[in-house]
Design brief:
This protein is α/β, with parallel strands linked by helices. Helix content is 27%, strand content 37%. The longest helix is centred in the last third of the chain and has 20 residues.
Amino acid sequence: MAGLMGLTACATSEDIVPVPYTASSAPATPGAQNIHVTVASSDARTENRARIGAQINGYGMEMAAIRSQVEVTEIVRDAIAAELRQRGYQVSETGSRVNAEVTTFYNDFSTGLLAGKSKADVALTVTVTDKSGVEVYRRGITGEAERTVQLANGGNAATTLSQALSKALEQLMSDPAFVAALAR
């Protein structure tokens, strides 16, 4: 019963939250310090463009919206840039262009007997174009995360979305074709 009560707290008030992202602790990529990359993102979501989730009540019924403090495209662009910088790339307005088209960025809550679940899905289509504008890389990547939660609120949605984004970008950064495309 306590878990159900926790899931209903403030479910009627819209929640506007930051979605924090911390770059992985990956080592520098050899030669990356000489590669300049521009990072951009666009929003291709067909559903839930105005929110990143919804609070639910103890019966699992959708209540108030959860929105991000900044545009989802900014979150994704900044996360990719942080991952590239961590690996030694020069993120600037010159060089190859990485574009991430956001197709999904959403968190769903569900109820349970003693606790609920927060499940986030992130899907991106990432392209790289070389300095002359020719597309040299395209890949769809996804990330999912699931956590047990006591509250169906914006903070929990943001944390789970951040974990899902990390998993998606882990796929991207470990793709040898992506690394090779950056050097073209």
